Amino acid sequence: VLQSFCKMSWLFGKKKTPAEILRENKRMLDKAIRELDRERVGLQNQEKKLVSEIKTAARQGQMGAVQVMAKSLVRNRHAVTKMYGLKSQLQAVSLRMATLKSTQAMADSMQGATKAMKAMNKKLNLPA
Q: E strand or H helix at 17, and its extent?
């Protein structure tokens, strides 16, 4: 309910500043990265269990079960690899957002310095 209210706040005239939007998006990206890490760790734990099950099934001579579990292991490792790629893409987006924030801060400070220089120039350009 709160999330839908935040999304509809533009109807009531409350406009978010770019810094607030940036902070919100950064928080969402960080949350997504944490969730991906959690999923990846779960898959890696599952992979360890699967490897031990494959070994026990192979010792017992159950080659059909071993083949099925080996295919599952390959799928699992592929999913882990995809998660690493997705995490790096999310981190790249987060870094790009941080770069935009620092560029904006630099532009704002340059604007303030320009105003200060104008004021000083006006005071120094006294008629002789």
A: none
Residue-wise pLDDT tens digits, 24-80 = 999 999 999 999 999 999 999 999 999 999 999 999 999 999 999 999 999 999 999
Contact 21, 97 (CB under 8 A): no
CB atoms within 10 A of CB 69: 19
Residue 126: left (phi > 0), alpha (psi -120 to 50), or beta?
Answer: beta
Counts for the chain of helices (H) and strands (E), in that order: 3, 0
CA distance 41 to 47: 10
* 97 Cβ contact list (under 8 Å, min separation 6): 22, 25, 26, 29
